[in-house]
């Protein structure tokens, strides 16, 4: 995925269409299940299973990979993820995260059971693996023979993203030298997705900051579609259906 404002708008539109089943599960949580400050209070195991109920289907390509335990374990490395601000904001962030990642990994088809948008988390590797996605980065040079196509819930792409992510996760150059760790280790896979979600990549704000309202647009942002997209993402009607955030992995 490339681009800034254009991709933000595209992601917003796509995620609105692609996460209907996800958002129903997230936004209809009973108040009794929303007590406490931890992530499990916003998205308990039963909700995770209901949202992503087809991920282990034989027609998907990820049986047994994307688990609730792996998600919670990964999220613990990012204490502000899904725990920032009030309950409504926290719900919005988790809904947007699963909306966007479900869109990135969708395996649905027009007449799929429960509709084409209920089949998120069906892929852990990009379908088209022909491109190396190798940028001429001096800081994060590509390893011989490796390809940096999309992997994991956010479909992490390009060598410089694998390099930065590996460093941030304390893995040094492991992801750069072995990018398929994002598709073979479920905790690392979720960590990579949450890392990208939480990380500012100037001039782009992080998805987390946009969704939680922490991002203050500059005059330059206001003059571009980036600000328009952010307003659309945080629209109270749209957000209750869980839009996708401004991802560009």
TrEMBL record:
Gene3D superfamilies: 1.10.530.10, Endochitinase, domain 2. PROSITE patterns: CHITINASE_19_1, CHITINASE_19_2. Keywords: Chitin-binding, Disulfide bond, Plant defense. GO terms for molecular function: chitin binding; chitinase activity. InterPro entries: Glyco_hydro_19_cat, Lysozyme-like_dom_sf. Residues 60-82, 188-198 form the Glycoside hydrolase family 19 catalytic domain. One of its GO terms (biological process) is cell wall macromolecule catabolic process. This is Endochitinase (Chitinase).
């Amino acid at each position: 995925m490339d681009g800034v404002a254009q991709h933000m708008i595209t992601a917003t539109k796509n995620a609105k269409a692609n996460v209907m089943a996800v958002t129903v599960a997230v936004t209809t949580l009973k108040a009794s299940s929303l007590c406490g400050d931890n992530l499990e209070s916003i998205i308990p195991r039963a909700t995770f299973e209901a949202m992503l109920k087809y991920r282990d289907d034989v027609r998907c390509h990820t049986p047994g990979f994307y688990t609730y335990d792996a998600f919670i374990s990964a999220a613990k490395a990012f204490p502000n993820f899904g725990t920032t601000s009030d309950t409504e904001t926290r719900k919005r962030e988790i809904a947007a995260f699963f909306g966007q990642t479900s869109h990135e990994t969708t395996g649905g088809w027009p007449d799929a059971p429960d509709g084409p948008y209920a089949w998120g988390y069906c892929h852990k590797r990009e379908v088209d693996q022909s491109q190396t996605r190798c940028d001429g980065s001096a800081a994060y040079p590509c390893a011989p023979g490796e390809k940096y196509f999309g992997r994991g819930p956010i479909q992490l792409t390009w060598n410089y993203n694998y390099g930065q992510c590996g460093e941030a996760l304390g893995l040094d150059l492991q992801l750069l030298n072995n990018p398929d760790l994002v598709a073979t280790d479920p905790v690392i896979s979720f960590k990579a997705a949450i890392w990208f979600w939480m990380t500012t990549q100037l001039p782009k704000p992080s998805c987390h900051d946009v969704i939680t309202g922490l991002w203050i647009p500059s005059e330059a942002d206001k003059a571009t579609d980036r600000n328009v997209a952010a307003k659309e993402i945080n629209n109270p009607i749209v957000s209750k259906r869980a839009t996708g955030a401004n991802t560009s992995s």
